[in-house]
Design a protein that fits this description.
By secondary structure, the protein is α/β, with parallel strands linked by helices. Helices cover about 60% and strands about 5% of the residues. The termini are far apart.
Length: about 400
């Protein structure tokens, strides 16, 4: 029996599993394939065992090492270490680099001295299978292989990594996106994003900087599904970035996905104990419960909203949006004592702040001004203030 060890990075375990399935089916079990990511009860890392011992043991027994290589794993020391250990043991074995999402001519480094194969090229895949079967003492019967090869190729297309997400490529795409934004072609940005994913050969996360920029822009343009898609990709690379988590929840609220927004907010509070005292996060919580109150009419949702906005406003009195909402919701609840006094203070300070803020460069985004004006309008309605005074805010926030 021929024993094959598949060396791979964690992000490319699906490519390694595709090769395991391919070799298992082609050889009918005559080729024994091992990889650390195998989750079957009889495969992968031994439960409770020391992982280095397992790796050394499997490398020592292997006849061949299949090294999964792509632009994002080409320099990973782990793959080089495993291949180095294999080549340094007494047993003679072959090392076979399988290259994805890049031309073989771009494959450089210590492993490029071995015969390399394109993992997406059908003829090369068949060649590897044939050679391994011969080593196992079997006669290749290619007439039965097509469904197996087709299944492998489908899996590879689904899981292949980006073609060239190098720093240079990422920088180029960031500049292109910024050029579209600066030249007023934001409505065409989704087409540019499609072109980027096609060029890089993957719909998966590519670079946090790219996805962050796209998610911000799509949010401002109220293209919420696209904004959520890009925010999720950025979070796949930076899962604990509070700014990205905030934006994801904001998009979910815009989409009226309150349950998902609450789940994500609970995640933030579970991971970051102090987050509920951050004005932006507390403001999100206030909005969530305010909208739940508007949907359900439950008094507890109203109390939760007031409490969250109150925390944000007390933490930062310049956070007028949260102060405005505290006033509005207290009036809505019938707590008129002190609410109108607070309203006068908040509105007076807010008008000065908004007047100054709208004159800065760059000017606040339309979405931000629209959101601020809605809050002011709610206060005027709840407090029965003269509409003439509201026109001052409308003039400031619509210019």
């Amino acid at each position: 029996m021929v024993k094959v060890f598949i060396s791979h990075s964690h992000e490319e375990k699906d490519l390694a599993l595709a090769w395991q399935t391919l070799l298992d089916h082609i050889s009918q079990g005559a080729i024994e394939v091992w990889l650390s990511s195998d989750t079957k009860p009889t495969g992968g890392m031994k439960i409770g065992g020391e992982w280095r011992d397992t790796i050394y043991n499997k490398l020592e027994k292997a006849d061949y090492i299949l090294a999964i290589i792509s632009p994002r794993s080409i320099d990973r020391p782990w793959i080089l270490w495993e291949c180095g250990v294999a080549s340094g043991t007494d047993k003679e074995r072959g090392i076979i680099p399988i290259v994805f999402s890049m031309p073989l001519s771009d494959f450089d480094g210590p492993l490029s001295t071995y015969q390399s194969y394109a993992g997406e090229e059908e003829t090369k895949i068949i060649e590897i299978c044939e050679r391994l079967l011969v080593e196992a003492g079997l006669s290749p019967k290619k007439q039965y292989w097509q469904p197996i090869i087709d299944s492998y190729l489908s899996s590879i297309r689904l899981h292949r990594p980006p073609r060239n997400a190098s720093p240079t490529a990422v920088s180029l795409w960031v500049r292109r996106i910024e050029n579209y934004i600066n030249s007023g072609r934001v409505s065409e940005l989704h087409t540019l994003a499609d072109s980027m994913y096609a060029s890089l050969g993957s719909e998966k996360a590519i670079d946090a900087q790219v996805h962050n920029l796209l998610s911000i822009t799509f949010l401002e343009e109220k293209q919420y599904e696209l904004a959520l898609k890009e925010a999720k990709k950025a979070l796949a690379l930076l899962p604990d970035d509070l700014n990205l988590l905030h934006r994801k929840i904001l998009v979910l609220l815009e989409m009226r996905e309150h349950n998902q927004a609450k789940d994500n907010l609970d995640y933030i509070y579970g991971q970051f104990g102090e987050a509920r005292y951050l004005p932006e996060i507390a403001g999100l919580e206030g909005r969530l419960y305010r909208e739940l109150y508007e949907l359900t009419g439950k008094e507890e949702e109203l109390d939760n909203s007031i409490n969250a906005y109150q925390i944000a406003y007390e933490k930062d009195p310049l956070n007028y949006y949260c102060g405005v909402n505290v006033v509005n919701l207290k009036l809505l609840k019938g707590e008129h004592d002190g609410a109108k006094e607070m309203a006068n203070k908040v509105l007076d300070e807010a008008s000065k702040f908004y007047l100054k803020g709208t004159k800065r460069l760059p000017s606040p985004k339309p979405r931000h001004k629209e959101s601020a004006l809605k809050g002011i309008q709610r206060v005027f309605r709840s407090a029965n203030y003269p509409k003439d005074n509201l026109s001052k805010f409308e003039k400031i926030l619509t210019q």
